[in-house]
Design a protein that fits this description.
Chain lengths: 309, 284
């Protein structure tokens, strides 16, 4: 009998059947921006031992392909000349990096073809990314790694710039980020590749590239069962009850605090332009105060975040 | 005391009497604080996990890797794989056993844990006993890693062992979402996830029940009951052996758990990863 559960099971089984681990024999433009050199080293040395990605990620990959098709069509419909390179896969030597371009967009004036990378993003991520700096400053390591792809493409094809074509996966809206070629960053990527290949060339296995120190990367790492790097986490102290009581009290006062501020605003609005008002048992005075601008000096602030378990 | 003087050694049984009374109070205070801290740790650990992070094995809940990782993140448990590991050993048929040894630390305390998995395990070979060539050995190695990770985290937070379903339910965990697995006497029972294949029946009405339903019922009611009989038992319509009032929810096994005749050859460390239990599915 056809049930919702039956249909869901069929879809799930199909998606799982699509999950495959492919050989990794060299660095790729798509992964050279990964923050952990140890990971990239292990990925090539022990590609067959990597943990397969899960069903959720496979769904994201599959959906990403649909987004790419949608985006290309939209760009073409908009009258842009889009070239889907017939020879999409390419390689560079020394260090050996392979890549696969999404598209090139033709400059209507000089006919140059600029590389463009299409990314389907969640609405939140899409909103956050508005300049190349936003990529480099992203909390997500894989977003920080996106520009590396374009850096390698630009270096390979000797282009002074490339583009990110970002599609909002919820609304379908597209925005474009221009990415100027940054030689220093490209050079750093190439040197990183050289270090990894140099370690791979050591058959004794004693030369192992450094692991990154970002715990969020380690937690999701598909090679973590082969990595001897320490997973270091800050210790957690156990409060004797005082802190919990303070947080509870703060929570109790939150509603009153909000109302206090609202009342403050309402009082100011009620006073309006008047300088002095008699209000029952109160006298309310108001005056304008000029505020001088000032520069906030750089400093280290301690941010305390309270999360309910 | 002169070098050649014979030192008088206090008898151990009298040593306590010689302790300063204030010291005893300090020790008692410290013990109270430790118990209080452990209870806080347990409460926090239970709060951050959910039903899917636990699996019921022969009526006892066990924290799976997903849950153990959440707990590790919360408490700041650090670890590293010890030098020389993982190790591989081959049995006489060529099936490898992978062993991991890892060092876990939290708050200056360090423990070492080992985890291993054997490719000859039925989980990897299936009932038709796959040859070594047919088995994904990377999968076996990863399972050994997971096993070690799980043991280490639970080793450094020992309160995560010896819980029962009531502890989880009292902490607001929906145990109905947990996988479940029990064993027929002298065997592992059916593993298709279907009641017809489990070989298990309701002790009240005789209806065939799944591994998961049996496991949940054993933990909750001390008997294997079908879901209808469990509902009746909850209303008091069926006489079930009342669970012994717990004096402490931790650190003590029930009488049923102390008689492991139904799962004689298994220890907690032998349990396969979560995916294994998913196949026994069926919502509670």
């Amino acid at each position: 009998m056809l049930t919702a559960g039956y249909i869901a099971d069929k879809i799930s089984a199909f998606v799982k059947s699509e999950i495959k681990v492919y050989p990794v024999n060299n660095l790729r433009a798509s992964n050279i921006g990964h923050p952990c050199e140890r990971y990239l080293y292990l990925l090539i040395k022990h590609w067959d031992e990597q943990q397969p990605h899960d069903e959720g990620l496979q769904n994201i990959f599959d959906f990403g392909n649909s987004v790419e098709e949608y985006t290309i069509k939209k760009l073409k419909d908009a009258g842009l000349e889009i070239v889907t390179p017939t020879q999409r896969s390419w390689k560079v030597e020394n260090p050996f990096i392979t890549g696969r371009e999404d598209i090139r967009i033709k400059d209507p004036e000089d006919g140059q073809l600029y590389p463009a990378e299409i990314k389907g993003l969640s609405p939140f991520e899409w909103e956050r990314l508005n300049s190349i700096e936003d990529f480099y400053n992203s909390k997500r390591y894989y977003v920080r790694g996106y520009p590396s792809q374009l850096m390698v493409y630009c270096w390979k094809f000797e282009k002074e710039k490339g583009f990110f074509v970002l599609t909002n996966k919820l609304t379908g809206k597209i925005k474009i980020i221009e990415v100027p070629f940054d030689w220093d960053r490209a050079d750093a990527l190439l040197k990183k590749g050289e270090r990894i290949y140099s370690a791979l060339a050591d058959e004794s296995g004693k030369t192992v590239p450094a692991a990154c120190d970002d715990i969020t990367v380690c937690e999701e790492c598909t090679m973590r069962h082969l990595c001897s790097a320490s997973i270091e986490r800050p210790d957690m102290d156990i409060d004797d009850g005082e802190l919990e009581a303070l947080i509870d009290r703060k929570g109790e006062l939150a509603a009153a605090y909000k109302e206090y501020n609202e009342m403050n605003d309402k009082i100011k609005a009620a006073v309006g332009d008047r300088d002095k008002v008699l209000a029952g048992k109160y006298v309310v005075t108001a005056k304008n105060i000029e505020k001088k601008e000032y520069v906030v000096k750089a400093r280290t602030e301690r941010r305390v975040t309270v999360t309910r378990l | 005391m002169a070098e050649n003087e014979i030192m008088t050694v206090q008898e151990t049984s009298d040593a306590l009497m010689e302790l300063d009374y204030d010291n005893i109070l300090v020790m008692a205070d410290r013990a109270d604080k430790m118990v209080s801290a452990l209870n806080k740790i347990m409460a926090a650990a239970l709060k951050i996990t959910n039903g899917k992070d636990w699996v019921l094995i022969g009526s006892t809940p066990y924290l799976q890797e997903t849950g153990a990782s959440k707990v590790a993140r919360l408490f700041g448990i650090s670890w590293k794989i010890c030098d020389g590991f993982p190790k591989q050993e081959l049995d006489k048929d060529g099936y490898p056993t992978y062993t991991y040894r890892m060092e876990f630390s939290m708050h200056g305390q360090t423990i070492t844990a080992e985890g291993m998995r054997n490719a000859a395990d039925e989980f990897f070979t299936g009932k038709n006993k796959k040859s070594v060539d047919e088995i994904d050995l990377a999968d076996v190695k990863r399972a050994a890693y997971t096993n070690c990770l799980n043991r280490g985290i639970k080793g450094i937070l020992p309160g995560l062992r010896n819980l029962d379903v009531s502890d989880l339910e009292n902490a607001g965990i929906n145990v109905g979402r947990s996988g479940g697995y029990t064993f027929k006497t002298g065997s592992k029972g059916g593993n298709s996830g279907k009641a017809e294949d489990s070989g298990l029946v309701c002790e009240n009405c005789g209806e065939k029940i799944t591994q998961k339903v049996a496991s949940y019922s054993e933990s909750k009611y001390g008997r294997r009951l079908c879901m209808n009989c469990q509902k009746a038992a909850a209303k008091g319509a069926i006489d079930v052996t009342p669970k012994e009032e717990k004096q402490s929810t931790r650190g003590r096994k029930s009488a049923q758990q102390q008689e492991p005749e139904e799962y004689p050859s298994y220890s907690e460390d032998d349990f396969p990863p979560a995916e294994y239990y998913d196949q026994f599915g069926g919502a509670q």
